[in-house]
Queue: 4 jobs
Job 1
Amino acid sequence: MTSNDHSATGRPETLRRVDGREMRLAIGNTPVGIEQTEAWERYEASQGHALWGRYLYAGEDGKPVAAIAIYADTIGGRPFLWAKHGPTWLKEQSPEREAHLRELLRAEIRRRDRAIPFLRMHARYNAPDLHELLNTITYDRTFVIDLTPRTPDAIAAAMPKDGRRAVKRAQRVAEEAGCAISDETGLERGEFAAIYEVLAETARRDGFRPHPADVYWSMLTSLGPEHARLFVLRRDGVPHCWDLITTSGKDATAYYGASSTESRGFRGAEALDWWAARTLAEEGYRGLDLMGADSPRVPELYQVGMYKKRYAKHPTEVDGAWDVPVNQAMYAALRAAKTGRGAYKALRDRLGRH
């Protein structure tokens, strides 16, 4: 395993490729996103995404400052690299360190594979080498339900007033409607079809395209019950809402979820989220991240943010994702192609589809 030379900036930190064990030991008890753990490698492999490398960004004394796991991915048939919710910062995260780490990573990528146009990773501070994502959206603000009070009344008391009322009302309405909520993590593949259909209905209603069913099933099975759970609300045996929860250390994340239109009549989604929070609190988790809300950078998440803000008095700022060009010419070509497709679609929509 090799170490990068010091960069032209003169900073003392270096980049060193490591294995999973060394990265895990370096991170220790620092909170880390599930996507940066060894467990996530199994899920990425199930999607055909190979681990490209794990790296430690170390100080002059050799002690780790940050850790990052990077996977190979594709966009429009072209390769790129993705470090989801990475890097994990172990010491001070300054703008200078962020920029220096990106500089070292670009050099490493060029050294290993000049066909890679860009790296997608997270950063706190905006900078000239960071670009908005070519596809999909990110978030830099979220709401986390504080589970440390442990008891339902204490957890609810930590919420805003309208949130306290909402969760208790949802629990009562769902119970009166005859709903049953349970952990169905170990269900069989054949049973998952009905679960996925709830997501398909959600997608039709809300205007988005879901992943194929195997993406969600593979997440459950590859991560295993230690890191992925499926909580389901049923009425008369029929699934109406579900949450796919991932866990890393003492932190839980509502990674995916769905709800039927009918469930709105008995507040199914709220009742399920509240049940999930209470269940995870009993198991000793410290927070349930609702994974994304609106911010000045991402106004598209306004509606979901309005729902989630009831569960916590204050938002939690997180590092958003950015594209980091490695090969400027190839990245510019990808962006131009996207712009061209968007212009063609807009023109087609104005003229009508003939």
Note: Residues 346-351 have pLDDT under 50 and may be disordered.
Job 2
Amino acid sequence: MNRNCRAAVIVAHNEPLVIREIPIPELEPGALLVRIAVSTLCGTDVHRWHGPLPKGDTLPIIIGHEPCGYVEAIKGERTDILGNPVTIGDRIIWSYVACGSCYYCSVALQPCICPHRVSWGHQRCDQYPYLLGSCAEYMYVPPSCLIIKVPPDVPSTLAAASACAFRTIMHGFEKLGPVYAHEIVLIQGSGPLGIFATAVAREHGAKCILVIGAPQSRLEVAKRMGADDVLDLTVVTAENDRRQWVLENTEGRGADIVIQVANNMAVPEGLNMLRRGGRYVHIGAGGQATIPVENLPQEMVLYTIRSGEPRHWLQAIDFLASRKNNYPFEDIISASYTLDRVNEALNAMASFQIVKPAIVFE
């Protein structure tokens, strides 16, 4: 095997990514090398491209954290999350790595906020193990990752998307708990997270699903995924008018459940659309906002969601496989690009021209 592979690298913020030759590392015991089939992109990739990176992260980095690929090499024996042997050629996705021994991992049982947690798409690619971003021909899978095999009837594009956007939604609905048949769900945001949340809310039995977002092309996908009504915030630009739309659709109470998958700036508005005693799920990140505590709905419950635990990767894949005939999941992946066109894909994502781009290697 060639000991190098091609990867899309951020060398400077807001500058075109560079295709570089990156070393393929030697595997430590229990590690895997995966030949990438597809890497989908999400808003976090755009944020990392624009910068700044989180504290402690520095360039250069391989962009991408939503991989699906084929096992190329294994150092030792590995099993998947269900205990089945992993073999060369298996098509897989894999979880992030928490330390397993800190307070959050071992006592609080909240590994998503482990301070030592390792995720993809923001580690330096000039340091071992080099290949921890998914816009590359190969990717290194550390020994502690849990592995999820992809069923034959789930396309690699959707499997890749399940490795971030979809599994985060599964985590959010797990924290939320039951959605009752009388409840109205409002989703703030019509990107990949919001569109997948629409399908999951429909599957959980919501009485009505409302989606606020933009542009109209994304809202049309949300409608095909089960939204009962949508509102284009580039058309209805006044916050009070959007709140009035929600009140008119909820008998004047506000939504029973609000799921925020846009950004932090949407939170104050979303809380103002929630009924007293309702539940608010905060997922979308980025930006800053101030919440007037005195205006919080009485007896409301607020859930904040970060990423997902390994079971949420599995749940996302199983949801895609078992509901493939119920929802047009393929509409979420709106364009495919080769690695050499990664800058085109990022620009299309950043300008909301498409829902979700896929970098395709096979």
Note: The first helix runs from residue 43 to 50.
Job 3
Amino acid sequence: MQEELAEISSEISGYTVSLSNPKLSPTVRSVLEQSLEKAVKRQQAIEQTLAESESLRDAVETVLDPETVVQRLSRLDEVLAANNPSMGNIELSLHIDRIDCYPDRRVVLRTCKLGALAGAVEMLSVHEDSQPHDKPVKPRRRARLRVDDGNDEEWEATAEWSADPNRFAGLGEHWFDETEYVIPDRPLPWAVENAEAVFRRRQKAKLSYVKLAREFNVSPPTARAAVQHYLSEHPDETDDVNLPQGGQRPPKFDLSKFGHEARALWDAGTSKLQLAKKYECSTPTIDKAIAWSYEQEGLPMPTRQNRKEAKFRQARRMLDEGHPLDDITRELGVSDVTARSYLRESFAKEGKPMPDLRRRRET
């Protein structure tokens, strides 16, 4: 092509010299001008073809540069290790064409061999239709991922390209690899897989579901589900274990043995929770014991307000008898602040001001 270009350049020079002759006849001049125009067009076409070839050669050298290929392969590893989902998806889009899933649990991964060669897809694409799927579907354009990276222009262009589902459409089949996987069946539930063993153990040892679950290290509902599954699969067999429901209840507390003592301690300020720990029972049992003690005297069990008012009266009585504030606090088992509040409430009910108690304290 270079030789043809040199010949055409020589012809153009000859035509130019001939046309400079003013004595040429109009007919000859017209023929020469047509030949010159044809030669110039051919020269431009050859120069454009040579420029495209040179550009393609430079691009191929850039694409096939070993350092660039190694760098892109390393970038795949780095991007996946960076825990950045957006950039990871973009980088994988350079290598993965599509993933086909089938009802028989087969998964076919179709990868492109040119993923590590930047720009190779555009150069090698011949814009031919790709091979059809087993069940053709219209590809959906993926959303363009947002990326934040130092080289924004490169990543933005890559993100735009990776969102195109037909980005590999012009490549031949020899540029692709297909790897087939088969998704294994889901593991059976524990109750289904161990149904027979659980059922046989229950029939042999006559175990309850609680004990059966403890032996197999599962929950009672799981043990029950295993037995029920086995029976559903073997309708000719039956569960012959019939255990009593509930079991024996513990004996009731004899309230007469500690009811009066519990009432006395409660009146003295011991809490019901402390009493429950003392008598090793529940707080409702303490309530019943105290109520029983009052019933023996024909009295109703006092309410919280009744007990509070009783302490008001006791504090006021001791004060009127000349007891110092320290004696009152010890007797009631409260702080001096609480004792003062009891006395203040007592005087307020009578419409009287509370006296100065500073002289009533023990010295």
Note: The mean pLDDT is 80.
Job 4
Amino acid sequence: MTHAQWLPEHVARLRPYEPGKPIDEVQRELGLPAVVKLASNESPYGPSPRALAAARQALQEAHRYPDAGGYYLRADLARYHGVSSQEIALGAGSTELVQLLVTALLTPDDHAIVVDVTFPMYRLALEVGRVPYTVVPLRDGRYDVESILRAVRPNTKMVFLANPNNPTGTYIPRPDLEFLLESLPARVVVVHDEAYVHYVDCPDYPDGLTYYRRGAPVVILRTFSKVYGLAGLRVGYAIGHPDIVRGIDTVRSPFNVSHVAQAAARAALADEAYVRTVVEATRTQRTWLTQQLTELGWPPYPSQANFVCFRVEGDARAWSDRLLREGVIVRPLGFFGLPTGLRVTVGRPEDNISFIDKLKKLI
């Protein structure tokens, strides 16, 4: 028996998630002394000093297992959002919560809906769970609510919406989300992934909590990996009906969020002034990057996130490789369903200038 024969067919055919290249890997492979990473939508400003201090303090208890229920972090999040702790589920990043939602709520007899250009982990979780799903195309880089509704089947039980969407940065306006929620059967759970919500500045963005509080079957996903700068600690959370949270807690691994991650997340959540500083700087640089790319003839999709996405002539991976050799890591989007697309994280001013300068050199 070969190793490949040990894998079930539905696992063997999967394509694993492709993360952005780490800086040290690029330096080793290409012998570059300095590399700018704009590939993974990390905050270039890092965690708040208060979060770093809390993490250092928590390390003194690294020989102890963490609080498996995350009592204090859940309590802080409940107060922050005006819900109960029983409506909060913790995960090792919101990515784990995607997998846990599929495991807890869906079976191979159910059906789900995703869009064609979005966060790949939705499809991967459904494939692993052997849950049938329909892929609905975006229209001009935006969600098409009518097409989503046409894809609903009698056994449809879940719809995944990244809002703002990764990798396009576009969003679902409030009227569209309201129409979708009003039109979907009551059995359908809408997973409203708000990983990039802090960067939104448009007036008609719909807060998922508003509809959850009205009784809509919405699960909100949030993460500490973006604006809070804790991507390396892996902590995210879901807000949902207590029955759904109980389902998540039943199927998750114990101790899935470390003691250090919980402590840092609590401190980061409390440091609202630091978050405002990061958001303001990111929005300013997002506008600058958008203007620069537009002047180069490659206007990005209108972004409400901490990245911009634009289409290039030809294969985006070839452009990514050329930028890589210049010491700039960006994200080609073939794995996301957009083979001519590049996604560029909004970095510090000097990082963004370096990217634009290198891009101009290659054009």
Note: The longest strand covers residues 156-162.
